[in-house]
Design a protein that fits this description.
The protein is mostly helical and 77 residues long. It has one domain. Helices cover 64% and strands 0% of the residues. Helix 2 packs antiparallel against helix 3. The radius of gyration is 19 Å and the shape is elongated.
Length: 77
């Protein structure tokens, strides 16, 4: 299939709505909380299975926040 060159759009700058989402208190608060949670696991040490699960939970929370930021949902505006 041939594609006309005017049908192709390339975005050279990051989406401004992503920057808006980064500075929303909900996203920023959850991301900072997950980073503190990860840091606390390393500060106290990983000495049991529960500590490892805590680290996995905090990491999953952080990954979910980053994935939410990367999504293309236009519900925000």
């Amino acid at each position: 299939m041939l594609v006309r060159s005017d049908d192709i759009t390339v975005e050279s700058r990051p989406n401004k709505s992503r920057f808006k989402r980064v500075f929303r208190i909900e996203w920023l608060g959850q991301t900072v909380a997950s980073l503190f949670w990860i840091s606390s696991v390393f500060a106290y040490g990983i000495s049991s299975t529960g500590d490892g699960l805590q680290l996995l939970a905090a990491t999953a929370w952080l990954v979910a926040n980053v994935a939410a930021l990367a999504s293309n949902d236009k519900d925000e505006d």
